[in-house]
Automatic annotation (TrEMBL), chains A, B:
Compartment annotation: Cytoplasm
GO biological process: proteolysis
GO molecular function: dipeptidase activity; serine-type peptidase activity
NCBIfam families per record: PRK05282.1
CDD domains noted in UniProt: GAT1_Peptidase_E
Classification via Gene3D superfamilies: 3.40.50.880
Entry EC no(s): 3.4.13.21
Protein name from the UniProt record: dipeptidase E
Annotated Pfam families: Peptidase_S51
Main location: cytoplasm
Keywords, comma-separated and alphabetical: Cytoplasm, Dipeptidase, Hydrolase, Protease, Serine protease
GO annotation, cellular component aspect: cytoplasm
Amino acid sequence: MKKLLLLSNSTNPGEDYLDWPKDYLADFMSGEFKNIVFVPYAGITISYDEYTERLNGALGKIGLKATGIHEATDPVKAIQNADAIFVGGGNTFELLSQLYKNKLVEPIREKLNSGTPYVGWSAGSNMACPTVKTTNDMPITFPPSFDALSLIPFQINPHYTEATLPNHGGETRKMRLAEYLEINQDSTVVCLPEGTLLHVEGETMVYKGKKEGKVLTYGNEERILLDQDIV
Amino acid sequence: MKKLLLLSNSTNPGEDYLDWPKDYLADFMSGEFKNIVFVPYAGITISYDEYTERLNGALGKIGLKATGIHEATDPVKAIQNADAIFVGGGNTFELLSQLYKNKLVEPIREKLNSGTPYVGWSAGSNMACPTVKTTNDMPITFPPSFDALSLIPFQINPHYTEATLPNHGGETRKMRLAEYLEINQDSTVVCLPEGTLLHVEGETMVYKGKKEGKVLTYGNEERILLDQDIV
């Protein structure tokens, strides 16, 4: 049974790294995990070692520890031997490119379909979707495809906000997602404001967090998501 | 001699469509232009007809009129016969995809290298760069390449701003561009705040507008651009 924890973001402004989701994480990761594999590929201006260290600083508080996949001589084997997989935020395009380059897309998908727990935040949550077409990130590198892990049947928009900068034009987030739905009319977008997440267990997907989320579809009214709602 | 007018944006908040650049446009387009071809492909939630009409509403004020390329039975011929080419904003990925689909990348490049004036705004300015890797747009569709028209040797970031949303995380624009430069270390990014433009005549590129622009390179201090500065 698929087990996914898909976070909008790692950290709320002014708080410690991965602080807001730590109770959710501890709950999701209850039991013993000897071999948590962390994929730091989305990190660009931070080294993979530093990124893994930063993660372990946060995981240590709930008794967990991860190993960076960049330390493995055979990354595919590292995935196959993992008893949980964590994928961190950063740049979605670089993350996806590295997953393809290291031939990890299929191995991760198979591993997660067999029930290994997955925790992703920001770009790591985009990765769980059919495609990366609803990322907020800048396309700083060209991946061989926009197809991602397809662990869930809809798209996530992380860091979702309807706030706009005063006296600045450019598209709002809602306009961007309306454009996405115009081009991809059969798709559904789940909007996760910062500090919210989706908890997937098999076919059941539960929205969690204090802020209101949204489900957007082409031409339809938007549906509001509240804490503990089934998506 | 190459002649390009590359605008950050069409319209400042609260103003009429294409109002802020109208004096620059009138100056750039002085003389007689019988056959201005407009490429509306970046428009997603507006039809190509509506987009062309909106443009002509603005161009009429300075005595100009454009024809949408979607009306041409042979778009390549339409480009070859144009005496000016306008490319409007919207979604960069859809615009680039349609240029490839309609086999227009090479014909437009050739035409502009031979001296036909080009006016682009927002996504239309991204198109003039070597790649679309510094667009702010959502990757709602997968183009066959991120390579664009390469009319200038550097990247533009349109709608540039250093403002951030209060109490919202996610990467700032500066962080996104720093990530771009980390992955593309030989590249240069010219940041155009709204209400500013680049005016290119042959090898001379002049920055114009009231707000401060910026030139960003990997590892270097940023260079400030003021009105009439040579880039």
